[in-house]
């Protein structure tokens, strides 16, 4: 198992404490996307229009998926068909 960067660890703690997300069903997955590790913060299933944020190893937000517009692209590439190596790293 690869180590998760300190900033991602901190972001998971903040994410878990964030009351605007769902109380249950929150998850963080790591993928390889465009040649780097990215972390997908899924807010749970309590709202249909919630955004799923995707961060790189340095905690830079690279895109937000879902939401009202149903966005599926990240850096002008379809995320679901180009992200590989899905690994669940945290869930509440």
Give keywords:
alpha+beta, two-stranded antiparallel ribbon, 41% strand, globular, single chain, 92 residues, five-stranded antiparallel beta sheet, 2 helices, 17% helix
Termini separation comes to 20 Å
The amount of helix comes to: 10-25%
- Report the portion of residues in β strands: 35-45%
The chain-level mean pLDDT equals 92
Strands ordered across the widest β-sheet: 4-3-2-1-7
**Which blocks of ≥5 consecutive residues have pLDDT under 50?**
none
SSE pattern, N- to C-terminal = HEEEEEEHE
Q: Could you say which structural class the secondary elements and strand pairing correspond to?
A: alpha+beta
Radius of gyration: 12 Å
Shape: globular
DSSP helical segment count: 2
Oligomeric description of these chains:
single chain
**Number of beta strands:** 7
Q: Major sheet: size, sense and barrel closure?
A: 5 strands, antiparallel
């Amino acid at each position: 198992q690869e180590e998760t960067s300190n900033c991602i660890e901190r972001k998971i703690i903040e994410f878990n404490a964030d009351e605007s997300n769902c109380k249950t069903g929150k998850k963080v997955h790591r993928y390889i996307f465009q040649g780097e590790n990215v972390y997908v913060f899924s807010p749970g299933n309590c709202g249909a229009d919630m955004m799923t944020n995707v961060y790189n190893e340095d905690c830079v937000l690279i895109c937000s998926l879902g939401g009202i517009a149903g966005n599926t692209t990240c850096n002008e590439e379809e995320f679901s068909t180009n992200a590989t190596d899905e690994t669940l790293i945290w869930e509440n």
